Amino acid sequence: MPAALASLKTGLGFDVHAFAEGRKLILGGVDIPHDRGLLGHSDADVLAHAISDALLGAVRGGDIGKLFPDTDPVYKDADSLKLLAAVAEFVRSCGFEILDVDSVIAAQAPKLSPYRDAMRENLARAMGVAVESVGVKATTTEWLGFEGREEGISARAVCLVCRCSGQER
Ligand SMILES: Nc1ccn([C@@H]2O[C@H](COP(=O)(O)O)[C@@H](O)[C@H]2O)c(=O)n1
Ligand SMILES: C[C@@]1(CO)OP(=O)(O)OP(=O)(O)OC[C@H]1O
């Protein structure tokens, strides 16, 4: 196998947060108007968390809770884009470059497509990659499951990273 191919790693991330009254709905760093927000120790940005876990998975770096424990008051109401930026730095410190990220949010409501590009721009900036390297999609679950009952939102993400130091790209 060519060395460049041998240095590619994939990552998968998944996260869920429940809706709660009196919380902001922050997705991909965008404050989205809605009657409820997501509950969490941090700002509960389920999309930023799924992408963080995908990146950590790719470099076998554990998961978001290992890096930023939800028992640590430092992360109370934390801006998850800042956590994602720290994860991206950790990925680079392991010798990997972030090549590509794709994601999907499962939410019955609200309609998320108007915020897609703002989310992509925020996430790309946080990770230090081009906006073209970041995909964000949304789907309902056709009223099925906890997302369909509007009890919460889930997000899934995949990424591709490359150990590029000293190798041809
Ligand atoms: N919260 C959501 C969910 C979906 N979308 C957009 O609607 C399209 C159709 O969704 P289905 O679940 O009915 O397949 C989807 O492809 C998204 O473009 C959305 O914006 N916000
Ligand atoms: C992000 C962290 C930060 O303490 O808290 P939560 O907002 O509860 O989010 P979760 O997805 O449960 O991940 C754990 C934590 O790392």
TrEMBL record:
CDD domains assigned: MECDP_synthase
PANTHER family in the cross-refs: 2-C-METHYL-D-ERYTHRITOL 2,4-CYCLODIPHOSPHATE SYNTHASE, CHLOROPLASTIC (PTHR43181)
Signal peptide (UniProt feature, chain positions): none
The keyword Lyase is assigned to this record: yes
GO molecular function, one term: 2-C-methyl-D-erythritol 2,4-cyclodiphosphate synthase activity
Name of this chain's protein: 2-C-methyl-D-erythritol 2,4-cyclodiphosphate synthase
InterPro entries assigned: MECDP_synthase, MECDP_synthase_CS, MECDP_synthase_sf
Pfam families, per the entry: YgbB
Species this chain originates from: Raoultibacter massiliensis
HAMAP family: IspF
Family designation: Belongs to the IspF family.
Residues marked Transition state stabilizer (site): 41, 140
Taxonomic superkingdom: Bacteria
Cofactors required: a divalent metal cation
Classification lineage: Bacteria, Bacillati, Actinomycetota, Coriobacteriia, Eggerthellales
Protein keywords: Isoprene biosynthesis, Lyase, Metal-binding
Function: Involved in the biosynthesis of isopentenyl diphosphate (IPP) and dimethylallyl diphosphate (DMAPP), two major building blocks of isoprenoid compounds. Catalyzes the conversion of 4-diphosphocytidyl-2-C-methyl-D-erythritol 2-phosphate (CDP-ME2P) to 2-C-methyl-D-erythritol 2,4-cyclodiphosphate (ME-CPP) with a corresponding release of cytidine 5-monophosphate (CMP).
